[in-house]
Each structure stands twice: as structure tokens, then as C-alpha cells.
User: Fold these one by one.
Assistant:
Number 1:
Amino acid sequence: MRRNRPECDTSPDPTDVHPAWLPPAAFRAVGSRHTLVHGDGLLVDTVLREVRLACATHGGTVRRSADGPPAHLVLALTGRSPQPAETEAAGRPGGTAPATEPSGRTPSVVNDDGMRRVLDAARADLAAAGGGPLGDEGYAVVRHGEVTVVLADAPAGLLHGLFHVVRLGESAFGAPHPARAYRPVMRRRMLDHWDNVDVHPVMGQVERGYAGGSILWRDGRAHPDRARVRAYARLLAGCGINAVSVNNVNVHATEARLLTDRLDDVAEIADDLRSYGIRVHLSVNFAAPVMVGGLSTADPLDEKVRAWWVETTARVYARIPDFGGYLVKADSEGQPGPFSYGRDHADGANLLAEALAPYGGVMHWRAFVYNHRQDWRDRSTDRARAAHDTFAPLDGRFQDNVIVQVKHGPVDFQTREPVSPVIAAMPGTRLAVEFQVTQEYTGQQRHVCYLAPWWHEVLRFTPWGDDGPTVADVAADGGGLAAVSNVGDDPFWTGHPLAQANLYAYGRLAWDPRLRPEDVLDEWIDLTFDPAASADPELLRRTLHEIMDDSWRTYERYTAPLGVGFMVRPGHHYGPDVDGYEYTAWGTYHFADRDGVGVDRTRATGTGFTGQYPPPWSQVYESPEQCPDELLLFFHHVRYDHVLRSGSTVVQHIYDTHFAGVAEVTAMSDRWAALAGLVDPVVHARVDERLAEQQRSAQEWCDQVNAYFHRKSGVPDVYGRPLY
Amino acid sequence: MRRNRPECDTSPDPTDVHPAWLPPAAFRAVGSRHTLVHGDGLLVDTVLREVRLACATHGGTVRRSADGPPAHLVLALTGRSPQPAETEAAGRPGGTAPATEPSGRTPSVVNDDGMRRVLDAARADLAAAGGGPLGDEGYAVVRHGEVTVVLADAPAGLLHGLFHVVRLGESAFGAPHPARAYRPVMRRRMLDHWDNVDVHPVMGQVERGYAGGSILWRDGRAHPDRARVRAYARLLAGCGINAVSVNNVNVHATEARLLTDRLDDVAEIADDLRSYGIRVHLSVNFAAPVMVGGLSTADPLDEKVRAWWVETTARVYARIPDFGGYLVKADSEGQPGPFSYGRDHADGANLLAEALAPYGGVMHWRAFVYNHRQDWRDRSTDRARAAHDTFAPLDGRFQDNVIVQVKHGPVDFQTREPVSPVIAAMPGTRLAVEFQVTQEYTGQQRHVCYLAPWWHEVLRFTPWGDDGPTVADVAADGGGLAAVSNVGDDPFWTGHPLAQANLYAYGRLAWDPRLRPEDVLDEWIDLTFDPAASADPELLRRTLHEIMDDSWRTYERYTAPLGVGFMVRPGHHYGPDVDGYEYTAWGTYHFADRDGVGVDRTRATGTGFTGQYPPPWSQVYESPEQCPDELLLFFHHVRYDHVLRSGSTVVQHIYDTHFAGVAEVTAMSDRWAALAGLVDPVVHARVDERLAEQQRSAQEWCDQVNAYFHRKSGVPDVYGRPLY
């Protein structure tokens, strides 16, 4: 599948792995030109290696010096000294950069006259544009005469700038333009791996993983295929991710030891990720002092426990100086937590945060806490309320380096949910918003489901009404974004080749949530499929866009309707089972009866969940007339003949959307069939196979959901289509 | 838990295993008397060992000779020579009988005058009673003066006669009575173990096992605890079972090799079972010629395949001369079969039968064949029809030593089903009726559910109407009974101590299906709990009887109503999920909608399944008015307000029975609580723990089923009880 790959390619990823959005062709514009690289440090080495690799493929040249022939591209640090962390990392014995240039030089001043003039002009241009410092990761791009200049204050910025130019391709080398500065909106753009070190008897190696085994772990140790991990780091950097939590939030016995005697395994992964500017975080078990520390308690207010975390964390930093911090799932779905000791989650989070603080580490503390032993008979309890009930009262009690990590919706990564009210409820706390790139509830990478439009809706949502800040603003001011990875050791990384777009888009939206998901999709298509080199670039581009752009709404149409959620097979969560969770302890109900369906979460007659929102949403959601159609059944129990804002009745809407969703999948398959010959045949075959399953599954969803509501309501379809 | 166990006890079962229905106390009447044993052979050795063990505990004496003091009990072969098979088995090096008596003697004629007179009188008595030969396993009991005499033609009969006297206890030694002959109604009384040799990743070591691991296999080999296997054989003989299939009918890779290079493992188990008169059978994979034989086909009409089975079977008999035969699940739930080669099940069964015939082996061929990839939308297909559709046309085509093994109901061991129409459809074929002692669908040995009343109903059912033969008659004339074992390596054998009664009762009903289940229950109670030695024998006896006797109907009441079946959680089949199988490929539906529920299997408007029965049942089941209430929803789709023969409406019946079932479980628990102090505290605690789970589960069943039908029908409970 790696066609057009030259003999001299020294790319670190093995030949049988798909190159995703960084194939050699993506570097054609850069690699066919002359590039100068100014700067020093581990990540500048990486920049140089990337450009050198591109040039080997495409015939350009690259030099790391200030003198020589005129360049088409200048990648330059702006003279600021390398940051301490970078210096240290670069000098570490574990560093993996091939030091082909003499190291120790710090060309902090560009000394070639021609280049100096270009850089001076670019800097002046940037200053004129009102640009302040670019920061740790920002960069500016200027097109000056025949030369494109990327400026950065720090090495990571230079790497991100390089990938920016790669994304632009030839258009980076068009008409001159003044300086444009790019800084990440989110300081931390994190990916959480739910990878188990040991294979779990029920959940397998990657919990909720749909792309094979772990690329980070195998047979209880760090995965021996280091090249694959480095190739992964490169892809993550290429879309903007800068932090990775390397193990499942459900921390079992073996994984608990990563913190102590298995720390070398973590350090090994950290070494590989570091050269692409990515820090390692670790999921830890709140009961670690008992599990691996030999203490009799994990009480957060116990002095011995506190000392244990301080000492243990000191050892972590001694081994991994740029370690990012801890991630904890506590008092949730069986994981231990502070509740066991009569403490609250601020006590718990602050305990670990205190240990991390001296090193600049952060404590990601998940707000996904709820009672999973709920009595389905008791309609007064409401899982959607749980995170707010638990965390909102704690606002202001968390230390500065605690990040409370909040799932974007109040339940659990459903295809459609409202935004979590916790996001508007903790102004005195740093919040990170958590997404799920792995498609647990959205087709498990057997269905095409491009999730960026969904995330974009969440990110631009204004919890306090139109004039207030967005969810993205809250995250940007707080802890940034986190998301569950969709990657495994599958040759396509993500099982479904088109699911790569979700990982790419997550990184890009985390860097800049103002990006339009359709533009990000086109970026990804251009990088991944190289339409320019195809027989029909426009057909290829347009068709892929049409298949993917609306695929999340298509998925929504043929699955659970109107925001009701969780009509999935229990356990594995794939495929329909309308009553699958209806009489269980998981708190995920729809209460369908012969008259109507939906969860009454109003203050007036329901669980009162709407009261967790500030105005205007507390009013909007309270009213069945004002509530957006797509969330109606999340907030209200209504009759089947209730007329939606769309004009349709609830039950006819269910029929219509389900039939429409199936038809859209058919159209998707037809479109994909038309791409035969324009797409790598191996990719084409894999997607073909998945589309067949998606078609089968969509039909099953449609028929089961329609049959269920037809049998319950007795209402026929107005168009007389088959209901079983 | 083995209280009252004397030091000199040489019982073969380990001390931490419950003695089930053969505790030392059960042998009190025999063991405290003087016994003479006449006869020779392996099973007479076993009889002698059993009596000797009893005497060591209870102070009696036993001799194997014709002279000596007067005896209270004479166990005597009637002078017939030992059977060839027994002779051979006794002489084999693998024989395990402790030869404490000088062997080689054949006291075929009783030579003590007193004893000779007793025996002559007993024989005369038997002849006067019109008794013909007692056969391989039969026996006669005479009480003559102060002596009880058990006569048998063959050693196995003597062993069964001994256990008969044990069951009678003191009453075997009461008033004189003339000879009574006992012969098994079913020639073969078989127990099928669904034990995997290797642990299966989904099904575990024992498929549908609820009592721990296998007692026959461990770590891929025959279980090293041979004493446990012998103790098991003793219990089986003690209730009348004489054949055991030692591995799961789903034959995976390792198990397929039991037929060839792993045959020694089977022989080892055969050695242990032989000394209690039990033959070993083996589940084999129809594709064995390919899987382990290196052939390219398993086509039953292929000459090489035929030769392979002939040779392989010859090797089996060379190693295990009294090997019972094969058991095959073919073309079912993924197991291979003759359909793969365009052949039918007669072709398949006859192939293996031919190989077994020279040795007297039998081929048990399961009729459990159906399409498990059914389209739930297609109401014309019907899993209940499948066995009849497949097998009835083949009647007369099976060789004499083929036994077609038919599940008692047309679906799959549900709590309530009609009798399978296959039982009346194959007069030219030897049929065995298959039961399920393991409680897959009847509470998984966490619920008290005494199944004998259910089996008894099936066995006395008259497929051709009142004047015709019963199901028991069909089985007696054919292949007897088979049943899936409920035993594992749990210290109580069956997880739930009271579930031992099901295994006991199965063996007893297989011996004599005319026994009343309530009498068998009392037998089991008396043997197992030794009420005579308790502080309140009557309370103990009566309470246990009350708890267990109606427990199957109690279970039926709180689970799936009116014969509809399969409202269980998919996969593991424990606990309620009314729609769990409703939209699946398994063919197990109820079609509940807002108006009614049930499966229309009539000829008039449904799947036509009723037409598979002969009159009168073809008419009775066709009519919703004549159909027995308890099967109504199996045969008919009716409105919720349909009035049952009981006078109740369907939906009110559902509510009433579910509330009643829960109340009965509460009563059960209360009764059990009253037995504290009268029952071994370890047993009491285990049952207590299970009853708590049964109570929880019954309530869950009740609330879910009632909520489901209330939400669908909208009909309130006439008594206003809570519906959620």
C-alpha cells in the first residue's frame, strides 16, 4: 500500500503500515525545494530529519546553516534560547534523534546576509501585524518574494510550522503575503489511550479499541516495535497533539505498577514521543499506595499516603524529567477513589496534584463519576445529573495544577447529547473537555462516522447564551482538550481507513477549534489521498468529502433517535438493542411505553437535570416547545404524536430518519464504488468490506428501531414502508 | 461438612467434598448388619467394598463366602456366569477394585445349607411372582424371615440392588414380603458432560456449567484427581446412571484429538467409571477425518472417510473394550456436519454407526439442528419446526445402532415447552429423549428449581393421545434417556446443594419413569440429610419437601409466561431480558406489541408447526380455546385481554403469576431459615447465599416482565400493585 515509495526512503514506520495523513506525497511541495533550517535542539533535529526525508523523495535540498544558496523555505527559530525542558531532553541518552549535524552549536543569530535580510523582514512583518511572542508552540508564516519563512520562538513551534507548510502544499509557495501567526488555542491537546498492558479477559488489550492490539504495549511490556511508536508520534505531531496518556483509565494490577517498578516501560515510550514534542502522562490507580505501595490505606488525608505519592512522583520525574502528569478515574465503575475514605474528589485530586506540582506536572481528574448500581425502578435518580452533583460543589477547591476532565456530554459519548452542565458550573476550576475519538457508540470503526462536525457543535456551544464564551473558550482558559484514542496495531492504524480522519480532526480542532470541520476534512483528504496525483482529482476530492462530511448525522439518523441514546447491545455497545439498557443498573433509560418515549429531566415534573444549566439553556431545555428537536427525548417524555419543531410527529420522525439513514449509507457505498481505480486498491477493499457491514448494520438498526416503536405505538408509517 | 465421619472411613471421595446422596449415614441400616455377598467380578468387588465401608462405619460384618453365621442381608448373583464384558474388565490391569478377597474363585453355587435354603426360597418366590430373567441390571428383593435377599442375574444388578436396599434403609429389614423384581425401564441412562478439555475463551471449562470447573478434565488432560472421578461414578451408580459422555458436544481442536492420540485420557476415565458399571461415550467432531485424520474431506459417502472411521474406531475399542459409542452434534450452531457435503443426517449417522457396530457401540446423533442465522423479520420461518423438518423424513433410514437424541422440547430446554413432535414422528428409528439437568434456563444453580416434576410431565405425555404410548415408552423402546450434567468441581458437586436432587432424580426417573417426582424427592432428602438423626425429623423432611417440590413451577411463575420462553439475557441466559432475543438471528421470538403477545404456530394463520403433531395434539394446539394455558403463547399470538382457561386475562395472569412467584421465593427463604440447626451449617450457609440471589433475581424478573407488559399493554394491575 506504500506505492511510489523510493528506495532511499528512511521513514521510521514499517513498510506494511499505512502512512495515514503523512505519506511521502504530502511532502512533495517542501521536498522538491531548497530549505534552510536555523535552530537547535531535539525538535529542530526532527524538523531537519523530516525535511531531509522529504528531499530524498522529491529531489530538493536542505541545510542547517546560515550560508549557502537562496532558499525557497526557511524554518527558523527567532533567536530565543531553547527551553530548559527541550535542552535537557535533547541531551538525554535516550534521545533518538539521529545527530547527523554537529550538535552543541546554537545558531541563535542567522548570519548569512541574504537570509538575515529575509528573516529581518519577516520579523518586522510579524511585529507590524501586531504579533506578540509566539510561545512554546506557535509559529508565523511569511511569504516574502520567492521565499516562505516559518518563524518560531521555540523548537516545537518550528515543527508545527513545518507541518503547516506541508498541509498547505504548493499553496505555501504562491503569492507573497504578510506574516500570519498561528498559536494553539488549547495549550494541552491530549490523547488518552485506553490500552491495557496485559490483555484484559473481557475488554481485551485496548478497552473500547476497534483497531487491533495496542501499539504501546504487548505481552505485558512496552511494545518492542519502537519504530511504530515513533511513526505514531509523528502522525500525532502532524495534527497537533502534544500529550499522550499511555494506559487505560481502568488501572488493573499490572498497569498500577507502571508507576513504580515498571516505570522503565513508560520511560521508553516517553523517549519515542519526545522527539515529536509529545509528553507522556500516566493513568494511575487511586489505591496505588495500597496496591503497589504496601500501605494499608489510600486515604488522601493520611500523612503516609501523602508521603508515598510525593516520593513516588519524585522517582517518576527523576526517570522522566518532562513527564506530563497523572490521569485518574476515581469512584467510577468499580475504580477506587476518595469516597472509600469519606473524602471528596478535591481531597483526592489535590493529594496527587501536590506531588506533581514541583515539577510542573498536571493532575487530570475525570469527572465521569456516577452510580452504576442504579435502580431502574426509581425514576428520581438520573445518571446525567451525577457529574454536576459531585463536582460543582467542589469548584474553587482544586489546586492550580488539577485539571478536571469532563466528558463533553452528561452521559457517555453518545451520538447525541447536550453539552455537560459541568462545563458551565466550575469557573474557579481548570476544566478539560473530553471527547471520544474511538467510535465506541458511533459505529466502532466499522461504520464511516466523521465526528468533527459533532465536536465542532460542542466546542462552539455557548453555555451562557449567545453572547457568552463557548465551550472551546472554557477549555482554552482551562485544561484544553482530551480524547480517547482510536488507534491500534491495525495496518491502517484505525481499522477503518476513513476513521483516521477523526484522529486528525481531533488534533486540528484541539489546536484551533474555530476551524471548520469540512475544511479539516478536505485537508485530511488532500494529505492522505493525494488527489493531485490522481486521474480525476476533483472527483476523488468531492466524493470523499460527500461520503464523510455528513456521515455523523447519517449515523445518528439510523440509530437512536432524538437524543435518547443507549439503544445498543449491552457490554460491547455495537448494534441495536432498544431495551438493552432499559431495565439495568446503568442509568440509561428511554421509558418507552405504548403512549410515548423519552426521559423527563425537567424541573417541573422530572429529575430536575435542566436546573443544572444556567440560563438561557435552563429555560430552553425545560420547554418541550423550545428544546431542540435533536435533544427532545433526552429532556422530555412525549407522546408519539407530539409534533416536533420540524413539523413531523415523533414516531413519524423515527421512521423517516431511519429509512433515510439507510438510504444514505447506500449512497455512500455507491459513491465509494465509483472511486475504484482512484484509490489504493488495498484501501478500497478494506473500506468496501466495512461499508458492507455498515449497510447491514444500518438496515438492522432501522428495522429494529422502527419495529420496536411500531409495535409499541401501533402507528403505521404514513408512506406504508415495511415495519416488522 | 463431613461430620460423623469415622477414622476408618476409606471412602474414595476426598474429605472436602460433600457426600451428596451417599453419605455414611445412608448406609446405617446395611452397615450395622451381617451381610453375605455371593458372586464374582469387578462389580461384585464394588458391592463388597461398599458394604465393607458401611460396616466399618456402623459396626456390621460382611463376608464373601457361602459359609458362616446367619446373615441379615444376602446379596447374591443367581448362579449365572459372569458376563464376558465384566470378566474382561475385571481382569484388566486398569481395574481399580481393591482385591482384598482371594480372586479366581467363582462361587457360582451357594454351598452353605442355611443360605442355600434362603436363596432357594427367594428364587422360588421370584418364579412364583412370574418374574422372568432379571437381565443385565435388574434385581429382585425378598424379605424372608429375618433375612433380606437381593438376587441378580448379573453383577450390575447386584450393585443396583445394594443401592436399592440403601434407599430403603431400615424398612428393608421390616416385615417379610415376597419377591419384588426391579428392572430398569430405560436400558441406557446417559449423562452428557459438556466439559471442555481446554478452557474455552467464552464458554469456560464447562459449557453451561454452574458448578465450577470440570471434574473430568484439567489443564488439557484427564483430571489428576482420580478419587473424585470414582466418587462421582459411585453417586451416578447410586441413582442408576450407566453411561457418561465425557466431553462437550461442541468439539473443539483439543477435544477432537480424544478420539486419536489423546485416547489414553478417555481410557483413564473409563477405568474409573467401569467399577461402578458405567460406560464411557465420546463426543466427536463430524469433521474429525479432516481435523485429526489428515484427510481433505469428511464426506460420509467417501470411501477414505469410511475407512478412517472404521480404523479409528477399531483403535478405540482396542484400548477401551467396553466403550459405549459416539455422540455427535452436527450441522448445528457452527458444528460441521453432513450438510457441508450435500448429504443428510442419515448418511452422517450411519457412517459412524457402521464403524461402531462390530463392537456393540451406539451412535447418539443429536436432532438439535436448526438455522441460527434466521431473519427475525421473516415470520414464516420457525425454529421449533427445524428438528422435525430435518429428521422426520429420514425415519427408517438410520442403522440399528443409531440413536437419534431428541431434546424433549422443540426449542431448547426452556422452563416450559410442548413435547417435541419428533418424538412421535420416527417410529422406525431408535430415539433417546434428552433432558438438561444443568439449569441453563432454569436458574443456573443459583435458584432452587427441582426439575423432576417437569421431566415427569414430559415422560408421561402421550403424543398420540390418552390411550397411546407415553414419551417414556418411546424412549424405553428406543435409546433411553440422555441429559446434560450439572456437576463440576464445586465442593457440593452442583454449586447449589439442592441442585444435587436434579441429578439424583434424573437417574431415578431414567431407571423408572413411573416413579412420582415427589417420592424421588423424599428419597433424596432421606439419603442426603439423614432426617432420622436430626432433632426434628418431620420438620426437616417436610420443610425440604415444601421448599423443593413445587420450585420448578415457582420458577416458571416469575420468569417467562405461558410457554413463551427465551426472555433471558443473550449469551449467558441468566436473568430477564424480555426483548433480548426478539430481534436476533436465533429464532426465539415472542412478537409482543401493544395489542398482544405470542407466536402464531398454527396451520391456519401461522408457521404450521402444530401440523407436526399427530392427533389429538395437532387439533388441541391449533385451537386457542383448547390449548393448555401454560403453552398458549408458544402456539398462539393473542390479545392481552384474551381470557385464559383459568378465567384470567393474559396480562393479568402475567402480573399475578409474577407477584406470586416472588412471594413463593420469600416463603422458600423463610422455610430454609427455619432449618438452621437442623442442617449442616456449611450447607445451610451456601443455600442461604443462593436464596438471597434467587430472591433478588426473582424480584428483578417480576418487575421487568411486569413493567414490560404494562408499558406495552397499558393495562393496570387489577390489584393496584406496583408496575414500573
Number 2:
Amino acid sequence: MNSITNDIKIIKNETSKINEVDFENLTFGNTFTDHMLICDYRNGAWEQPVIKAYEPFTIDPSAKVFHYGQAIFEGMKAYKDENDDVWLFRPDENHLRFNKSAVRMAMPEIPESIFIDGLKTLLNIEKDWVKFGNGNSLYIRPFMIAIGSGVIAQPSSQYRFMIILSPAKSYYSGEVKVIIAEHFSRAANGGIGAAKAAGNYSAQFYPTKLANEQGFQQIIWTDDATHTKLEEAGTMNVFFRIGDTLLTAPTSERILDGVTRKSVLDIAKRDNIATEVRPVLVEELVAAAKNGTLKEIFGAGTAAVINPIVGFSFRDEYFELPKLENSFALEIKEKLNNIQYKLAEDTFNWTVKV
Amino acid sequence: MNSITNDIKIIKNETSKINEVDFENLTFGNTFTDHMLICDYRNGAWEQPVIKAYEPFTIDPSAKVFHYGQAIFEGMKAYKDENDDVWLFRPDENHLRFNKSAVRMAMPEIPESIFIDGLKTLLNIEKDWVKFGNGNSLYIRPFMIAIGSGVIAQPSSQYRFMIILSPAKSYYSGEVKVIIAEHFSRAANGGIGAAKAAGNYSAQFYPTKLANEQGFQQIIWTDDATHTKLEEAGTMNVFFRIGDTLLTAPTSERILDGVTRKSVLDIAKRDNIATEVRPVLVEELVAAAKNGTLKEIFGAGTAAVINPIVGFSFRDEYFELPKLENSFALEIKEKLNNIQYKLAEDTFNWTVKV
Ligand SMILES: Cc1ncc(COP(=O)(O)O)c(C=O)c1O
Ligand SMILES: Cc1ncc(COP(=O)(O)O)c(C=O)c1O
């Protein structure tokens, strides 16, 4: 059952757990498919990628990923259309961003032949795990970790790239109330906020726990130096609708350049929704909430696609957002989903067939 | 050969590699002893610690440490005196700091019975690895990683605490020239700079690589917002001697509260060296270098103890430091070493017998 396709070695898993999975009741990111892709980097080069059974692997206790956090990842989704074809959404953007993250974390870049072709080969094997139907997707997690050993704070010389896959239902996180960060910060100028580096996420766990205890599901991060500019949420970029204009912060060293954010802006522009990409001030948001021009806030990211926010808190004041008839969030979400599921024409050429 | 001491399960390694190790030619952090300590956290509690053979372990590809960087560590040393007794230096400080890091990274704190008693038990088994002689030590690396699985950005519910040991010679890194950070940053207010979190270290690899390419071994980090205040180096706090006063930055959310830094300040105070703990400005340093009052810069940290710096660069200007007869760095290093190796009276009660 072993074969080599395009220089990818395939060792088929003899058993499948697909029949044990309840696809109607999936919690996000906890179920994995039968196979994964592994590719190691040693002696300055990427070795042959291998697709094999999803399973634990062994690693030295002194591996640099454990001590110095050299680890990056991506988040993507595969969708199925009514012809049983599997589609990716702007995968080149994720590949590019992965390599940008790699550079910032002093890790090796990975070629398209491994990231993109490896992913397609893996998805071909796992296509039964991509379920048809709106909201259904196969979440894709490419990641790279430093596996070289040694407890000295220096870049590793050995790395492991992996792709694992997790079936997902549409992401509904309940009503999301957010709090605007006044003390804690997610990223700094000259830091790693624009990289999808592992350390950026655990750094937010404690502040988010405190926010949760106060009844808020997420934090909207502000610039660390002045806490006056609205930046992004934990795993989403954020949009603000004031009047009929959609505002979002420009990307920077502190903000992840989200694929969903980009796509939202493009759809809005195409469909004549006014957009402004510029620093959005906390005081501007509060003023708009007070004078009634603030109509929507929503997050944009691969996992949730578009996540409407029902209210925000700033300095002990809570501002409830209005319930709208014509929500930009829902309108754009539907348009984006229709492109992803091949239900609408893809005028942007964003979708890629596996 | 299995036994239980103080609730620590001991599974002796039947073979030892100690005779294969060339103790005269060790590179830092690459050789490990025969045993390690492992203790897992599950269902809200720490399980029984186990001391067993140092070896790789298996872990799920979706373990949160790989994706979200939930990982912290400590660095300590054990020293041998002429009676063959093994000593630790201020281990309670490391235990305290470890738990502070744990809180900031939303990880469980660890009790003294595991961190301190576990370490002592492990060191008793490995005492032949601690070599007598100035400069020799056994470097101790306690660390904790999130082993719970699932690719959703939330704190893990399972953790692994480990202690691994690596014999070390005195740390000599050659002549150290540093460059003062003007663009990149290590930490931000409201961030995790004061925690010994894995992500803080890999974030510095790329800027440090760029500095290396320009001929500088290390970066002196400045505050991220203005780059006007001198903060610390990659794994060391920094001291500046202007005239006969020793200056160092106060600890903050951005700076690690180093045990060596603390001890240097205490020794200086005891021996009537004037110290000032206050923000040290880049412009002040440059002015002092120009008017000849800047006499020394040195790093202070467990690995190198005291690391004298020979010169620094700021905005394309390089400032060479004078070669001194009576260096504070060397004087304090000797005093600190003498306490650690039990060659001088420990008036501070810093040393703890294993
Ligand atoms: C910090 C952060 N911001 C924004 C996003 C949204 O990016 P994308 O739309 O590419 O998923 C993510 C990732 O998913 C993220 O981790
Ligand atoms: C960032 C940083 N600063 C300073 C230090 C020095 O601390 P200590 O003297 O406790 O080793 C360390 C650690 O070793 C460190 O990682």
C-alpha cells in the first residue's frame, strides 16, 4: 500500500476512524483525520514529505520548540461542492504568510511543492472527511516546529513541518461580547505580532481568562504603546461599521494580515460598500456608540469566517450594538461562503480545486 | 531497582553514559545526564513525579505547546564543593519565578514538593555529573509544556513538567560586542517579557541573526515604545558602570527579574559599590561613552554569571569600552562564584545543600 506521488511518500493507514466520528456534533479542532503529512528539515534541506497515519511522534525533551517556542502555523479550510469536488480558498496566501512567519522566527521557508502540493495530495486521500453542506469544512492546520535539541537559546538546525486535518461544523461561539484592552497587549512594534507564531497565542490566554471572568468572550487588542488604536482580536481581524462605512485597521508589524480581512475588503469594494483602512481610534468608537452611528462590529478569520459582536466594554462602560435588518456582517459572510462553497461565481479567482 | 522516595517514583537507568562524556570539552546545553524528572498535570492536579531514563517521549501533533506556545522554563545551576557536596544557588527564587511565569501563561503553578524536592532527589541520583572545579557546574533546566491536544486557541487542560540536567564548563562566549535595539523589540507593556516564556526567546532569533551578521553577538533591548531606555540582553540583565556607580534598569513587565541581577546588586551594596536602579537612557550611555565616564557594561545571568561587554554600537557609531585594572564585573563575578562554590562565607544565606 506504500507509494510515491510527486516525490511524496504515502504510507496508507490500514484502518479508518471515519465511521466512529459524529459529524453532526464536532467540537472545533478536536477530531483528526486518518492521515497527516510530515516533512523534516535537516542539514539545510527539506527531506522527502511523508503522508502516514495520524499518530503521536517522539521528540527529545530538549527540543527547541519546548524551550524557545520556535513554532509557526497556518489555518485554512477545504470545502466540498455539490459535485463532490474539494476546494481550497486562496491557499497561496497562506503559503506566503507561512513563509513570512518562518523568516521572522528564523526558520526555513518551505517550497510550494511541499506546502501546496503536499496539502493537495493529503486532501485527495482524505476527501471523504470533507462533508458537503453549508458550514461544513475540513479545517487544515499546517505547522512547523523546531525539533533540534539543546538548551541554548539559538535557532534550531532541524525542523518538522506537518499538516493535520480536523473536520469542522460551522463555528458558532454564542453571543460575543468584547472588552477593549487597556492594560495588556498582544504585540508591539518590532515584535512578532504579524507572524503566526505560537507564542503570540499563549500570551493572550491569561488576559482572555480575566476577560472571560468579567463576562467577555474576547478582547479587542489596542496598540501597546498608547492603547488608543483598535487593532484585532485573538484570532480575528476586526471591522467596525460606522454609518455605512466599514472601517478596519491597516496591517502592520503588530497585526496579522488576515486572508478573510483581505477578502472582506475586496467583496465590500466590489459591491459598493464604502471602506476605510486606517487607524481606528477607541475614542472614535465610543463617540459613535454614543451618538448612534456605530452599527456593527465583527471579527473576520478563517475559523469563524465572520463573527458578529453584540457589544463592547471600555472603561467599565458597556455599549450594546443595535440589531440590524441589513447587517454588513451577515451579507458579506454569505457572499464569502457562497464563493467558498462554489454556490456563486468566483469573480476573484480565489478558489482552487484540489 | 524501582523505588519511591517522598512520593517520587524512581526508575533507575540501568546504564550510564557518564564515561562517554568528555567533561573538558562540553558545548553548552547539548549533553544530558542519565535521568530526568517528569510530572504530568491532569484533571486539575499534579500526578506523581517520576524520575527515569533521559529519553525522547511521544506527544500528539495537536499538542497545544506546538500551536500556541504554552511553555515556560527556568535555568539554574548545581555546584560541587571540595567535600563533594552539591549546592544550589537561591533555588526558591527560581521556583517562585517559575510560578509567576505559569500564572502569566495560564498554566498551573507547581508545588515546592515537586519543583524543589524533585530537583534535589534528581540531583542526588546524578551527583557524579556535578564536577568539582571553578567554572564547572550542572546546568538545570526545569520546564513545563502544554501537552493537551486540540487546535483551538485556548489554554490546555494537561501539562508536563520536566527537569533535565546538562553538565557545563564555564561559559566563555568570546569578546561580546552589543548593538542597541532601534527597531526590533523583545517585550511590551502588558506583554509577557517578565515571564520566562518560550515565545520570548524565539522572537529574538531573527533580530539577533541580523545583529550577528553585522558583527555583534548580542542585542541590548530598549523599551519598544520609544527605544530610549536600556532594558536587558537576550538572556541576561545588563549593568552599566558610569564613573564608579553601577546602574541597571528596574524590573518591570518588560524585563525578567534575574536572580543574578538581584545578587549582583546585593553584593555591590554590601561591598560599598554605589548602585542606582532606575531607567538608564541610551543618550546617557552615549554621552558617558563620549566623555569617558562609561567604564563598563556587563550582562548578568545564570548561564554566563557575568559577561563583560567590550563595546556597543548605536546608530552606526561604535563605542569601545576601556580595559580596566579594577573591573567591577570581574570583582563581582569572583565574589559570586566564591559563594556558589562555597569558597567564601555565604553571608546572604543563598546556597542550599542538596
Ligand atoms: C491574530 C490573528 N488575526 C487574524 C486572523 C485571521 O486571519 P485569516 O483570515 O487569514 O484566518 C488570525 C487567524 O486565523 C489570527 O491568528
Ligand atoms: C530574558 C532574561 N533576562 C535575564 C536573565 C537572567 O536571569 P537569571 O540571573 O535568573 O539567570 C535571563 C535568564 O537566564 C533571561 O532569560
